[in-house]
Design brief:
Elements: E1 2-10, H1 15-25, E2 28-33, E3 40-46, H2 52-59, E4 66-73
Antiparallel strand pairs: 1-3, 1-4, 2-3
């Protein structure tokens, strides 16, 4: 599995509904509300062999209320 962090910028007033839908889909390892440009930070594990961009598109970015995302790939945990 590949560990990926995704930051989500939500439309005004939609962060909690986006968070609820993410939990309903059971794809996130951790989810945090954040300050700054993005509203949510999530940690997900993408199954080995899956196209990461397609996985995020199909499982995350089609949730209503998401305005923008930023994906950070990981390589090594220390």
């Amino acid at each position: 599995m590949t560990c990926v962090f995704v930051q989500l910028q939500c439309q005004p007033g939609k962060a909690y509904s986006v968070a609820d839908k993410l939990y309903d889909r059971e794809i996130i390892s951790e989810l945090y509300s954040t300050s700054g440009e993005f509203d949510l930070l999530m940690k997900i594990y993408v199954p080995k062999g899956e196209d990461i961009g397609k996985y995020i598109h199909d499982n995350v970015l089609n949730i209503p209320g998401i305005a923008r995302s930023l994906t950070t790939m990981t390589f090594t945990a220390f």
